[in-house]
Amino acid sequence: MAMTLTSPAFAQGGTIPTAHTCDGQDLSPAFAWTGVPAGTVSLMLVCDDPDAPNGTFRHWAAYNIPADWTGLKAGHGADPAAPGVRQAVNDFRKPGYGGPCPPRGDKPHAYHFRLAALGDWIVSASHAARCLEIQELARPLEIEAVELVGFYGR
Asked: Number of folded domains in the chain?
């Protein structure tokens, strides 16, 4: 059974509600997942905007999520939901989630929320690690991944 990633806030290819953007409350959406593969030790959830004018903009990396979790509540924010769950510094230079905030007048950007099942914990990252660093540390640990893509324009 392949992993699935869903959100009650938006469907695959749908519009991300304003509450989850810089124009609203900037709260992370709620997520649910199923089908975590055998051998998974931890999970990582990231949000990237490959449509950003200067290359991929990294909005979020939550990692060391226990493998037995089945989702995250809305508003996970900059405070870990539980001991052990860590969040990287995003490209807004803040830890935690930074919602979609594309330049006004751009076509709607695609925001890729990617859940990765990892075969170990990410232990070598500093507390000031950036999202890209976490993604690079996770790459060799990845067992399986799934994406949920939402759109937002201003």
From this structure: 1
